[in-house]
Structures are given as C-alpha cells and as structure tokens.
Please model this.
Amino acid sequence: MSAILKTEKLRVEFKSTEFRQAVKVALHGLDLEVNAGEVFGFLGPNGAGKTTTMNVLLGFVPATSGTASLFGIDVRQPIARQRIGYLPELTYYYKFLTADELLRFYAKIFGLTRAETDRRIPELLKLVELEHAAKRPIKSYSKGMQQRVGLAQALINNPDLLVLDEPTSGLDPLGRMKVREIIQRLKNEGKTVFFSSHELGEVETVCDRVAIVHQGELKTVGSVADVSAGSVNLEQAFLKIVGVQSQPLP
Amino acid sequence: MKASPLLLLTALLALAFTLASSLVTQADGWSRRDKSDNIFGMMFGDGRKLFANQFFTMADVYFHSGYYPSIYDRGGKDSEIVETSHGHTDTPDDEIKEDFFGKPKDWVDAFGRHFRIVSHTHLDRGTEREILPWLRLAADLDPQKTETYTVGAFFLSEHLHQTNEAEAFLREGLRNNPDNCEILFALGRLYNESAHDITRARNVWELGVRKFLLLPSADQKENKIVFDELAVNLARLEDKAGNYGQAINWFHAAQRVSPDPGALQQQIDVLQKKLDALVPVVPGKLY
Amino acid sequence: MNKIIALAGVVIKELYRRKDFYVLFVLTALLTVAAGAVNFFHDDKIVRYVKDICLLLIWVSALVIAIVTTARQIPAEREARTIFPLLAKPVSRGQVIAGKFLGCWLATGVALLVFYFFFAVITGSREHLWPWAVYFQAAWMQWVMLAIVIAMVVLGSIYFAAPSSTSTISFIVVVGILGIGSHLKVIALQQPEPMQFILTAIYFLMPHLEWFDLRDFVVYDQSLVSWSALALATGYAAVWTGIFLMLAWLGFRRKNLTT
Model:
C-alpha cells in the first residue's frame, strides 16, 4: 500500500511564553505513515501533539525540522491540499452566507466547474441532511447543523484524504452516529480518513489503524487489535501507554 | 430577603424624583447653555464662536473659488473678507494670497499642485450667492460678530440686488448688537445707495455718529475708521442735498480721525467755494 | 485569480448583508437632503454648500466603510476559526491577502458608486448640470486612494489582533495625512534638529493621500485635472498599495495562526 500522508522526523518547536524556557518542543521527530483507503485514528491526551501534527500537515504551522507530505507533495505547497478535505473542531462558518453559498465559495477555491458544483452541492446537502436549510443563513443554524455544514465543505472536492479534528466533539448522540455513518461510507468508497478523537469507543468502531502520541512522541502505531493486545479494550491500552493506571471506583 | 424588581424600580424612580426636585434650584446656575436662544449655543456653548470664525473663513474660501492659503501658508493669521466703501470686496492679505503658493518646494509639492486649485478667481455674475450659507451660519453661531452682517448685506445688496434681504440681515445684526456703528453705517449705505432714501440714510448715519460718541475713548480710538466713514458719507450726502455748510462740518469732523486730512481739506475747499457762490450778491450803488 | 475573486466575493456579500453601508448611506442622504432643504435668504439657487457637505459625508462614510470592513477581515477569520478550513484548501496566504484586499476595495467601490450617483442626482436637480467627467475624476481618485488605505489596513490587521485598534490607528494616520500631508515640510522647517530631519523624511516617505482629494474641483466648478496627472497618481497609488500588500503578505506568511 502506498502512503498518502507521511511525516519524517517531524519536529516542531514553539517560542515559549514561560519564564526561563526558551522553546517548547511540541513534536520530537514524529514518523507517521497513513496508507490509501484506511481509516486512521490519531490518539493522545490533551497537549500530546495531535493538533500540532494536523496543523503542520495542513500548512498552518511550519515544521522546525523534518518533512511532512500529502500525496508525495511537501505540505508547504498549497497544491498538496488539492485532494484533501478538512473538518476542524468547532468552527463557526461565515454566518452571513447560506450553506449553499458557503459550499459554492469553497468549490470555487478548489476550481470546480459550475456543472460539477451544481451536481455536488445537492448531493452533499442531502448527505448531511441540510437540504431544508440550504438557503438559510448559517447564523440561524444549531451547533449540530454547523458541524454538518462543516462536514459538507470538507467533502466538496470529493477528497481522497479526509482530515477530521475531533469530528464528533460537541455533538449529541444522534449527531455522532451520523458522523460515524459518513466516515464508514467514505471508507467503503475507498477514501482515506485521518482523524483525531478522544472518543476511544468510536475509534475502536471505525478505525483500521491507530497511532497514540504522548508528549510529542509517537508511542505506538498499528491495528486496533494489535494496539489493544494485552488489554481489555483500546481505552485500557491507551491509558497504559500514556502511563495512567485506571482506578476502580470505590 | 428577595426584593421584587418592580418594587426596586419604583424605589429608584422615587429617589430620582426626590433628587431632581431638591437639585433643580441649584442646577439652575450650573450651566448657561440651556438658556441660549439658539440650538448652536445650546450644543457648543462658547465654543460656537470658533465655528463661527471658521464658517466666516469658509465664505472667504468660497469667494476665492477654493484658491486659498491654508493655515500653514498664512502663518497662523486669520483671514477675513472685508467690504470697503468704494465697493471693492477683498481680503486684507489678498496680495499675499496672490502668490501664496510660491515656487514648488520639491517634487511632492510640484506634483501635488495638479490636484489643488491654483488659479485665483473670484465669484461673479450672481455666483456670489454661494458664500451666503456660511455667513448665515456664522451669524447664527456668533451673533456678536458684526462683520458677518456687514459683509453679508454688502453681497446681498451690491452683487445680488436683494435689498430687502440685506436690510433684514442688518436689522438682525442691529438687534443682536444694538449700539454697533459699523452695522449702522452699512444700513445707512444700503438706504443711500440701493434704496436711494437719503432721509433714512442720514438718520441712521447720524445715529451711528451719536452711538460712536457714546463709546469709551479707547473704543473710539479703535473704531475711528468707522467714524471717518460715517462722517465722510454724511458729508457727501449733505453735499448732494445741497447742504454745503453741513457737509463742511462733517468733513471737519472726519479730519480729526482721517489718515489723510489733506485730501479732505481739498474737498472742504471745493464745498466752501460752492457755499460762497450761494451767498446772495448785495446790489451796490449804481451811481 | 479565480481563488482571489472567490475570496473577494465573500467580502462583497458581507458588506451588502451587513447594516453598516445602509446606515451610512441613509445618514448621508438625510443630512444632505436636510442641508439642501434649508433656505438661505430666500435664494434657491445656492448649491455649493450642499455639494460640500454631501462630499464630506461621502468621504467620511467611504473611509468608515473601507477601514472598518477591512480591519475585521483577518481577525474575524481567526476568531471564528474559518481561516483553518480556508487555508486547508489549495489557497496560499498571499491569495488570502489579495482576496481580502480585492473584496474590500471592490465593495468600497460599489458603495462609492451609489454615493456618487446620489450626489449627482441631488446636486444636478438643483443646478441642472451634470459634469460627469469631473465627478468621474473625483470618484476615481477617491477610490484609488482607498486602495492605499485598504492595503494599509490589511497590513495593520495582521499585526493588531483587535479590529478596533487597527481601525483607530488607521483613522488617525489617514486623517493626519489628509490634514497635514502636504504641509509637513513647512512644519518640518520650523522644527529644530533632529525633528526637522525626521519630519522631512516622513514627508517624502509617506503616501500622499491628500493628492487624491478632488472635492474642491467639484465644489468650485473647476476645470478637469490633467488626465496624465491622474494616470500618474493612479500609478503612485498602485505602487503604495503593492508595498502595503507585500508587507502584509510577509507578515502573514510566517504568522502562527494557532495562538
């Protein structure tokens, strides 16, 4: 299988605001490969370096050293992002636009033709169940609807790689189920999904492979079964890897 | 204890009413703004005079069709349009203005002149009316600025032939400045030159002279040019009316303040000859 | 270029869906009509003061629209986090800067068109004259000047996180240049060293926005400004706009947007 997302010895340092600490190392030489067609879960506690990795992959943050590429193209090149879709955690889209206008705007950014845009938008709105609200301004949407319009924009270019940052964060159980269904559907279509989540049960359900990072270092990577080996479930394995022992309730 | 919002609101209203009723007598002396007779006085207080000066200058800017030195070109001097008895309207520093741009100081200045008005023209053929709004506003903002009335009336009567409007404006100025000799002089000139009503002109100018003589000596010294104009114009009026003796008296009065008493003396001599010619010849003995 | 146009389209939509423009236009129209309704000395041919007041209101309104709209663009993208899904697409930061600039400039241009049309109708109805060429020159120069202002505000919005700080500083700078720009050298010559040197340097290095104010030509019915001077001034504005956008891009290129 070919790696469509790859990082090699990726190191990211930030200037620290803390006294007597010149730099803060967010990633210590991360090596990661995500293959085409797999659903890859990227796990770690808060501050482990998950978001930093995603930020480097999406070109938001420059790497201090090492390399990161998408489809074999350096992430510093905007063209590397031509075939990806990205759903950020909790984003408030342009509230003066309607869902239809928002999707048309992103379609133009991707250089989609008018015919392709006209075909794609109703499909996506149907997929995320927002057909009824397509002409309403986004400012009138609920949180769940905003997250769904976010998912629709991530899929506007029919991406080969989908990067999802906490896709179910803040959603009700029904919304989570819907997102899981969509991820499953994309997997069936042969798309690659790279997503971070704190919901380990969810990860266990949909992921082919997972990676766990802690304190900027890759602790383990492999199939859910491999990573969970020796533990009751993925959650127990995760806690063991990050060095926290679960305590039984008194 | 949980207070009802309605109760709290009632208590606050009652407190506000009590405070208002007890403070109203004291507050009467705190500000004079609300006693002002116009909206500008109420809004700006004494600061309105600054705006009045600015609007008066705007009238001047309009009169010169935008060809006007900025405060930096004028070295901080205020400019003012004045109207003179010989009917020419101009600014005292017109000669400075004529060449206030000078040679370009640098390329920025040279290129910038493409976008500034650099030809000196005056409003004419009725377009002088464009300065009137600024004079009206200046008068509203500072009713004690007498030049506003005299300049406005001059343009209204001499350039726009609106004698009634000019008279009304001057009368308004007179109501706001009851003892002002300049306005009385302008009103007299309006009667004399535009309405050709010599009697009213004489009455108003003579009133102007009486008001001038009631001024403290320091003010008389400062306004002697007005007295000069009043006296000279009265002299000419009496000359026209054939009252040569009275005309001579007014010229003599003007000589006391005039910067050029010699010129006036020449006119007195001419009048004296006219007066002498009027003395009936007593027939002598034929035989 | 399509990406830049797409970005600009969102800014234009934002302008006409927000209330700012309508409020300013109604205010300008009301004040102009009120000023025009005043009768001075029973003379209904007086028109220049109405032109003056209307043009002043247009200038103030256009500056407010340009500065306030531009100042909030990048900070709003960051605050609402829309910058992330945007930059996760094949669009460079330079294109974002260019798109935001173009959107604000075009939106301000549309606003100016509406304002000047209103101006032409109001003044034309009084004096029955429509000197379109002079109106075009005045509107064009104002629009070109606003390109410099908008580019400057884009630059400011990269460095100042709060749109209010960017707007306030931009207003002070623009009003300062318009007010004393052409006289700074005269002021400089009255100062002791080193202030004289500093002010003279600023005089030559700053964008001379005051050149673009042709209101006097409209108010005082002056003849047209030479077209070659107009073209040169447009070129000058393009250079300054380029400088500010370049600086904005340099600042934005390496900016960490996640903090």
